[in-house]
Fold this protein.
Amino acid sequence: MTGVNARAFADRFGVTSDNPAFDSLPPELARILARRTHRAYAERPVPQDLIEALLAVSLSASSKSDFQQASVVIVNDRSLRADIARHFPAMPWIGESPRFLVFCGDSLRLEKLGALRGHHQSNRNLEGFLNASVDAALTMQAFVLAAEMAGLGCCPISVIRNKMPQMAQLLGLPDGVFPVAGLCVGYPAGDGHISMRLPMSVTVHHDRYDDSELTSEIEAYDTRREAVHPTEPDRQRNQARFGIASSYGWSEDKARQAADPEGAAFAKYILDVGFDMS
Ligand SMILES: Cc1cc2nc3c(=O)[nH]c(=O)nc-3n(C[C@H](O)[C@H](O)[C@H](O)COP(=O)(O)O)c2cc1C
């Protein structure tokens, strides 16, 4: 298999594909296969009109039941941005990117529609939370793809959920409106790199879920990934707890990361603002 899409597939997954459909797909899809997160940005400003045009595109994403439960906060106030960034010194790109948006799940608006029409109903159960989260995530991803097609680079920022009371206060988020992620946006300062994905044999199932080959697939993936982007020993995660492994790869890195779970503070906040997850 040749062609730009097949080459992009190989870069994305670290293996080649014999799928003939790649030859008939528009070459523009190679840009999605080759997409990457950017955390360093050029000085070049990103006009407000462009942000709003990209938001129009992203708000065209599909929406559960047409409930339209995404809300987006564009953070333009520099001192507000500095106040947000101050909470996350390990991620300086939060304060440095030319633009910063916050994509929120908005469970409140549907409750207000109920009050407006006299059909009072809480929307703070698990279904309401998930629907609003999914709408916000789809909207953010549509924004990222649209922005990348316009030459911009983005970095989603879920770490803001770790400081919810502070973020809600700074952004004026009422109970029932919660961030799924912030988003740094700017023209990329460099090329960045493609983050190799798990093979489709792991993530795509045919008729029935089957992970019987997972261990060997993961070993092979770790090897492929390390061959392209080796992890230097001093970059191994959380050495104080886990030491330095002689053989390190994505699976070890992600297992170490997950052993220090995030999210407890967000869960507490969500329960505190009235979601019951029933
Ligand atoms: C919901 C979500 C939240 C993320 N949060 C952060 C974050 O807080 N900080 C960060 O630097 N990157 C964050 N990322 C970026 C991921 O680390 C990145 O997408 C991943 O490493 C894969 O790289 P790629 O997008 O270049 O393929 C987030 C991505 C997503 C989808």
